[in-house]
Amino acid sequence: MKLWQGAVSFVVLLLIAIPSGLDSCAIAPPTQVFSTKQMPADLRNEFLKGKLGVLRPTFRMEYLIGAFRILAGVPLTDTEVETLYGPETAESAGASSTWTTASGVRIDPYKQISTKDTQSAYLNCHQDAFDRAAATRAELEAKWGAKDPRTLEWVRGQDQVFSNCSGKDETIPAAPEANMDPLLARYRRYQIGAALFYAGQHRKAAEEFQQIAADKESPWYDIAPYLAARALLRAGKLEGDAAAFQQGKERLVAILDDPAQEKWYEASLGMLHKWQIQVEPKVRLADLGRELMRRKDDAVKQDVIDFLALMHGRRYGNVGPVKGTETTSELAAWLVAMSEASKPVDTMDWWRKTQKHAWLIAALANAPNGELAELLRAARLVKPGEPAYESVVYYAVTREIARGRAEQARAWADGALRQKLLRSTRNLILEQRMRVARNWDEFLRFSLRSPEPRLMDGEEGEFVLEQNEKAVDTAPIFDHDALGIFDRHLPLALWVDASGNARLPQNMQVRIAEAGWVRAVVLGNLDESRNLMQRIRQLQPESAKVADDFLAAPDEEQVRLAALFIVLRSPGLEPLITGAVILANPHYMAWGSRPCWTYGDRGTADLGFLTPEQRTAGDADWNRIRKSEPWNATHLARQTVEWARKYPDDPRVPEALHRAVIATRFRCTDADTGKYSQQAFAILHRRYPKSRWTAETPYWYQ
Amino acid sequence: METPDPLPGFPNIVLWAWESRQDLRFLKPDSAGIAFLARTVWVDGDRVYSRPRLQPLRFTPGTALMAVVRVESAAHGLPAASEVAREIRPAVELAGVRALQIDFDARQSEREWYSGLLRELRSAIPPKMPLAITALEHWCEDGGWVSSLAVSEATPMLFRMGPEDRRTPDHFAAGACSTSVGVSTDELPVRIPRARRLYFFHPGPWTQQAYDAAVAQAARWRK
Questions:
Q1: Average pLDDT over every residue of A470-485
Q2: Higher pLDDT, A315 or A405
Q3: Mean pLDDT, to the nearest integer, of B5-11?
Q4: Residue of A nearest to B201 (CA)
């Protein structure tokens, strides 16, 4: 069940081939991205160099953290970049080297929890334990020799220690005998402690380690206090032993207070942080918020993991979401302000007290209208090229539109569009500018967008194409906003105009002409259907035969039958411009799709560029289309059966019947579909037994 | 004559529970079984490594459990099947597991090796424990290859299938493919081939609501 592979492989095919008539249950194929919603389009060449684009609430938190650092003039170090954005290290502990016993058994580091009502597992033995054991073995082999009985006894004991990593039965090495070599005996004490630890006897393990800590001759004397603390923390976490948890914390603090144990500070601090996440998550989050604002070249990975876990509210061990994250640090407050969730952050207050561009962006996005004048004055001082510029302009435009100041919005947008902008930003500004188009010409001009070349949007969100994958065609096309306006609001006359309007590239003219032709047929406007088919013929010479057959239809009934034949042959055709160019590739059916004409509810829009008459005509067209019977499987099969009965000698009929039956298999169906599928099948087989279309139709479909 | 049930004791609906926290205690043991991802095994040239499910699965005691082992190949060669079988083996030793299902999208070049792995597994797991696999749909259409495998059941997965037209037949003739089909709740086909048992995949954790919808859909298909 690889959920992705198929999708990615067909990315190129699907660039504009997004069928609107997808079965509601079907999974949508990846689509092109006009403006990034979750991640920068080019992290290393743009974002990390200060071209942040428009920071949106939908951005993943790791990118917002990076943006905040850049806006604050504290850019990320290379180590931080790799930690935040580098490839995930998917290597599991199982992939690493573990331990192979003398009898050749490779140790499984995971402890299984398998009960009558639960299945789970956790990583019991970590890589450092295996590494430490391997190093000890090498030391002993060098000291005593590999075949020395003492070495072999140590290996036997260590095999027993690690057998507890995944084993169900506890295996504890025997206590040292009185005549045992003193050094081996000390190793054995340590092995007993470790075995108890992995066997889940954490309290006993802590006691054992504590005894080792009292033996200054033991090779494990200095690490033993840390191990005892760790065992107590595990007792607290895995067994709910609250007292042990507290004692473990106190021992870690004692280590940190002891200059003699400086060697174990870092490890103890790491463990203490784990304790703190469990017990004082908010305090830890506050610390992390401050830590992450400092440039670091050492390991920051755990800090980032912990911060994201606490900010996201994901469960972290037995810790629930941290409440009041916005109060823990400036970074956390800004992330909350820039998130999609409810925003209990006073962005104006932050802006006024910090005067930071990050807070200007957050305030422009969120502050009440009454505060906008002050913010817009500050926004005008942000220069093109500054990291905040594109976000500031975008939010200025959107806020001006939202409060009905179209002229001011146009001024902001037109000023920005004269600048060199990131592709996604340009598309976002164009989208806003189109909303306040003054006329039809402006509407068409601002409706065209050029998709991101290396970014796609799929089932699991945005993703960057692999190096060996072909880039997305960046030729300008419509984004969903323009498509929605065409489908819902524009009268047929404007479709006809657009299909020949030089403002639009030819590929868009074809798409408009094809969908407009279907629309004209459905609306019963035969004159415009002819005009649009002629336009298709001009734009797309490979469709000449199809067009000529349609244009040759002598009367209204024949026009309707010719249209039916075309739609039967071209499953992607529908009265909405959401599909690919269809007639040049008539048998194309999109991945996973079930062509289905559906017209969902679409809200009204305040389109100032339309005249009142155009609005009325557009609404009337839309309402008629919605009321008409969709040309889905049942409609197509029924119409074809009627055609076959009335004109049995029409040479197109056998093929039409075959395609009608196929439509009942692959298109949207309803309770009546089977009846017409059977009728079409029966007529085909009875009247045209020698037709190739009959041979290709072995079944009808219920 | 109806084919004997390859998974006796399993209800006719089985939920695939993938690697996320899954609380399926709302299931009654006789209403649906659970095929849970128990282990993932990676094979990369000579290397084999695995890890168990790390996210908890909760269920009502008595629910029919099938351990699913996902095999991922890096396509850099294949190790000895016996080594892979050894990594899979712990999955069948989990408490309450009554059947084993292998999920491996074997490439053409990996099919022979996969056949060998299944033979190896068949002899390595308890004789009465059913050994099943998930199958790409075209495996079941080809027929021959799947029929030769040492498995009780091959479940064709009717989802995430790629761009080709869907021409799923009314019934998969290849014996092992004929008893079950697998679908995903976010990509339900209009019709499915006739089959005794339905496997449902659900993106993310299962909920009572998602389960109820799956049951209702199964009833519509079986009408």
A1: 89
A2: A405
A3: 92
A4: A1
pTM of the model: 0.72
In A, which residues are within 8 Å of B18 by CB distance? 1
What confidence tier does B77 reach under pLDDT thresholds 50, 70, 90?
confident
- In the sheet that holds A461-464, the strands lie side by side as A31-32, A455-458, A461-464
Look up residue B193 and give its two tokens.
């081939």
In angstroms, what separates the C-alpha of B13 from chain A's closest C-alpha? Answer: 18
Residue A220 lies inside a defined structural domain of this protein: yes
The per-residue pLDDT for B145 is 81
- Residue whose C-alpha is closest to residue B161's, from A431, A61, A593, A307: A593
Q: How far apart are CA A77 and CA A82, in angstroms?
A: 9
Chain B's closest residue to A90, CA to CA, is B42
CATH label of the domain that carries residue A258: 1.25.40
Number of domains in chain B: 1
Q: Please report whether residue B157 resides in a domain.
A: yes
User: Per residue in A493-509, is it b (16+ CB within 10 Å) or e — as a string?
Assistant: ebbbbbbeeebbeebbb
The answer to the question of residue A203 being in a domain is yes
Q: Which of B93, B138, B166 should be substituted to probe chain A, the one whose Cβ sees the most A Cβ atoms within 10 Å? A: B166
Size of interface A-B (CB pairs under 8 A): 102
CB A493 within 8 A of CB A433: no
CB A191 within 8 A of CB A205: no
pLDDT at A92: 45
Instruction: Read off the pLDDT of residues A10-26 as tens digits, 9 standing for 90 and up.
Output: 222 222 222 333 333 33
DSSP state of A322: P
CATH code, domain with B207: 3.20.20
Chain A hits for B162, CB-CB cut-off 8 Å, are: 6, 9-10, 591
> How many Å lie between the alpha carbon of A108 and the closest alpha carbon of chain B?
8
Last residue in a domain, options A259, A277, A293:
A293
Of A10, A108, A122, the CB nearest to B162: A10
Task: Please give the pLDDT value at position B164.
Answer: 40
Whether residue B16 lies within 8 A of chain A, CB to CB, comes out as yes
Q: What is the Cα A447 distance to its own chain's centre?
A: 26
SS3 content of chain B, % helix, strand, coil (to 5): 25, 30, 45
Residue A207, token pair as written in the block: 């006691």
pLDDT tier at A680, thresholds 50, 70, 90: very high
- A92 interaction partners in chain B (CB closer than 8 Å): 49, 51
Averaged pLDDT of chain A? 88
pLDDT greater than 90 at residue A572: no
Is residue A675 in some structural domain? yes
Residue in chain B lying closest to A460 (CA): B203
Residue A345 CA to residue A656 CA, distance in Å, equals 63
Provide the residue range defining the domain that includes A549.
479-695
| Percentage of residues of chain A with pLDDT beyond 70 | 89
Closest Cβ–Cβ partner in A26, A118, A121 for B52: A121
Q: Which residues fall within 8 angstroms of residue A348, CB to CB, at 6 or more apart?
A: A363, A367, A371, A375
Q: What is the ipTM of this complex?
A: 0.86
* CA neighbor of A597 nearest in space, from A619, A618, A576, A566: A576
Nearest Cα to B163, choosing from A10, A663, A27, A18? Answer: A10
For residue B94, give its domain range.
13-222
- Say if the Cβ atoms of B50 and A27 lie within 8 Å: no
Question: B84 lies in a domain?
Answer: yes
Q: For the residues B18-38, what does the mean pLDDT come to?
A: 93
pLDDT confidence band for A87 (50 / 70 / 90)? low
Chain Cα centroid distance, residue B90: 17
A5 contacts in chain B (CB < 8 Å): 105, 160
- The residue among A293, A314, A331 that closes a domain is A293
**Position A488 in a domain:** yes
Taking contacts as CB-CB distances below 8 angstroms, the residues of chain A near B184 are 27
Total domains in chain A come to: 2
